[in-house]
Amino acid sequence: MDNLSDKEPLPITPEVLIRCGFEACDEGVDVYCIELPSEDNAYDKVELVISIQGEIWDETHAAIYVKKSDVNSGTWLHIKVDVKYLHQLQNFYFVHAGKELKSPFFSFSSN
Question: CA-CA to 86 of 20 to 30 Å: which in 22, 23, 26, 32?
C-alpha cells in the first residue's frame, strides 16, 4: 500500500493545463485560458486565465477575465489568487464554474 504522506502535489505546467482543457491565450508568454459558464447576461465571455511562473511571471496565478461585445477590451475582476498545484486550480475552478475541471489524467465514458 502506498503511503500518502510520501506524495507530492502536482505542479501546474503548460501540459497539465492543456490536458485540463485550457488553451494558450498569448503565444510565448505562458498564459492559458478556459471559458467559464456565465449566467450573467451582462458579459459575453468569462474566462479563467492562468499565468505560469517563469521568465515573465514571478508567481503562477489565476484570475477571472470578463468581456462585453460592445466594448473593445475586457475587464479583470479583482479575483486573483496564487496557485501552484493542480488541486488548488481545481478548487478555484469549481467555485467559479460550478462544475469540475476536466481531469488531465482520466477519461470517463458512459458505456
Answer: 26
